[in-house]
Design goal:
Structural class: alpha+beta
CATH topology: Ribosomal Protein S8, Chain: A, domain 1
Number of strands: 6
CATH class: Alpha Beta
CATH architecture: 2-Layer Sandwich
Largest sheet: 6 strands, mixed
Shape: globular
Number of domains: 1
Length: about 170
C-alpha cells in the first residue's frame, strides 16, 4: 500500500454523518409524514470544506440535491441579507426568514452573510451559519446548503435548500 496513489480527477466524498442515537421527541411535536415527530435536537449535517466553500447535506438526503444546489440549478425563491448584524440579531433574522420561506412554500433561500473581510474577528456569521441551519425549528426542514456561485455572492453567500411542504 505504500506505493498507492489516489486516482486523479475525483473529488473527495462528503464525510459521512456520525451515527445519531434516537432523540427524545418534543412534547406536542407535530407528526411527520411517516407518523413520527420531528427530532428535538439539532440536525447533524455531513459537511465538506473546500477552501472558503462549505457544503452541507442532511442525513438520508440524496447527493443530487447538493450537486444541483451547488451548480446554481435551483432557482432562488427568497433572499436574506445578514450584513452588519451581530450574532444574535443575525440568528434571529435568519430563523424568521427561513420560517417565512417555509410558510410560503419557498424551496431555496439565498443567505448573504459576507466573507468577514472587514471584521476584526473574521467571518463570524459565515462560521455560525451551519449551526444555525441545524438548530430546531428549521433544522429538520433543511435538506442541504452550499456556498453560492460567484454571480450570487460567491463565498459571501450560501444557498439553503428547504424540504417541500406537504
Amino acid at each position: 500500500m505504500a506505493d498507492a496513489r489516489p486516482l486523479g480527477g475525483r473529488r473527495r466524498p462528503l464525510a459521512p454523518a456520525p451515527p445519531v442515537p434516537p432523540r427524545p421527541v418534543r412534547a406536542g411535536a407535530a407528526p411527520r409524514a411517516g407518523g413520527e415527530a420531528e427530532p428535538a435536537g439539532p440536525v447533524r449535517f455531513a459537511l465538506r470544506r473546500e477552501g472558503e466553500r462549505l457544503l452541507g447535506l442532511a442525513p438520508g438526503v440524496d447527493r443530487r440535491h447538493l450537486r444541483r444546489l451547488r451548480s446554481g440549478a435551483v432557482e432562488v425563491d427568497r433572499r436574506v441579507d445578514l450584513h452588519g448584524m451581530d450574532l444574535a440579531g443575525a440568528e434571529a433574522a435568519l430563523r424568521e426568514a427561513l420560517l417565512a420561506a417555509l410558510a410560503a412554500g419557498a424551496r431555496c433561500v439565498l443567505v448573504v452573510h459576507g466573507r468577514g473581510l472587514h471584521s476584526p474577528a473574521g467571518p463570524v456569521l459565515k462560521e455560525a451559519l451551519p449551526a444555525w441551519l441545524a438548530a430546531p425549528p428549521v433544522g429538520p426542514r433543511v435538506l442541504a446548503f452550499a456556498t453560492a456561485g460567484r454571480a450570487a455572492g460567491g463565498a459571501g453567500a450560501t444557498y439553503v435548500l428547504l424540504r417541500r411542504s406537504r
